[in-house]
Amino acid sequence: MTKPMIFCDFDGTITNNDNIVKIMEHFGPIEAKQIKEDILAQNISIQEGVKNLFSLLPTSKKEEIIHFVLNSAEIREGFSAFVRYTHENGIPLYIVSGGIDFFLEPVLEPYGPFTKVFCNHASFALETIDIHYPHQCDELCSSQGCGCCKPTIIRKHSSPKHFNILIGDSITDFEAAKIADAVLARDFLIQKCEETGISYTPFETFHDCIEYLDELVGAKS
């Protein structure tokens, strides 16, 4: 019997807003807008785009950015109940995010523990924020520029006995949606799934995700 295993995005999924977009709107110079448009249009890789965005911000803004995110990040309705549901039902829950550790981890801390959190890393050793990518693409990834490569993480941590569920909202989740067994999608990811014929289930709150899991577990029992 296959068992559910969940790979859940952070920005725009666990949070109502995309925190990188919010950070750039608040702290970024005018150049950030074009970089963002190039990422969404897939003119540049996510890895290159995010690195370029944060290189626009001075390291002296670190604490101010953390404070901003902690005060502006809205956790999507039902997330606490969703995490509790995964614990109670023994369902592995991986957080897989193109977000950055220095603001992501403080936001998530009250809601854990999680099976594991994968995200990108920020260095503050230079004059501007330098982004590093510890979770690079493997040879099977068709993108080769994901940053935090979600399909690679899925391949490394799942097996044929698992039913892999991706929960996401944006272009950073698209490559993973191609290989997941099921996709719970919202916002831009819905558009990409419809354009490419990927089957998905829409969601707005994590109560919707719990309902989906209830039906799935019932069907597999």
From TrEMBL:
BP terms from Gene Ontology: L-methionine salvage from methylthioadenosine; L-serine biosynthetic process
SUPFAM superfamilies listed in its UniProt record: HAD-like
EC number: 3.1.3.87
Entry GO MF terms: 2-hydroxy-3-keto-5-methylthiopentenyl-1-phosphate phosphatase activity; L-phosphoserine phosphatase activity; magnesium ion binding
GO cellular component assignments: cytoplasm
Pfam families in alphabetical order: HAD
Catalytic activity line of the entry: 2-hydroxy-5-methylsulfanyl-3-oxopent-1-enyl phosphate + H2O = 1,2-dihydroxy-5-(methylsulfanyl)pent-1-en-3-one + phosphate; O-phospho-D-serine + H2O = D-serine + phosphate; O-phospho-L-serine + H2O = L-serine + phosphate
Record pathway: Amino-acid biosynthesis; L-serine biosynthesis; L-serine from 3-phospho-D-glycerate: step 3/3; Amino-acid biosynthesis; L-methionine biosynthesis via salvage pathway; L-methionine from S-methyl-5-thio-alpha-D-ribose 1-phosphate: step 4/6
Cofactors demanded by this protein: Mg(2+)
CDD domains: HAD_Pase (cd07524)
Keywords assigned: Amino-acid biosynthesis, Hydrolase, Magnesium, Metal-binding, Methionine biosynthesis, Serine biosynthesis
UniProt key word Lyase: no
InterPro entries: HAD-like_SerB (IPR050582), HAD-like_sf (IPR036412), HAD-SF_hydro_IB_MtnX (IPR017718), HAD_hydro_PyrdxlP_Pase-like (IPR006384), HAD_sf (IPR023214)
Entry similarity comment: Belongs to the HAD-like hydrolase superfamily. SerB family. Belongs to the HAD-like hydrolase superfamily. MtnX family.
NCBIfam families referenced in this protein's UniProt entry, alphabetically: DKMTPPase-SF, HAD-SF-IB, PRK09552.1
Biological role stated in the UniProt entry: Dephosphorylates 2-hydroxy-3-keto-5-methylthiopentenyl-1-phosphate (HK-MTPenyl-1-P) yielding 1,2-dihydroxy-3-keto-5-methylthiopentene (DHK-MTPene).
Protein name: 2-hydroxy-3-keto-5-methylthiopentenyl-1-phosphate phosphatase
Gene expressing this chain: mtnX
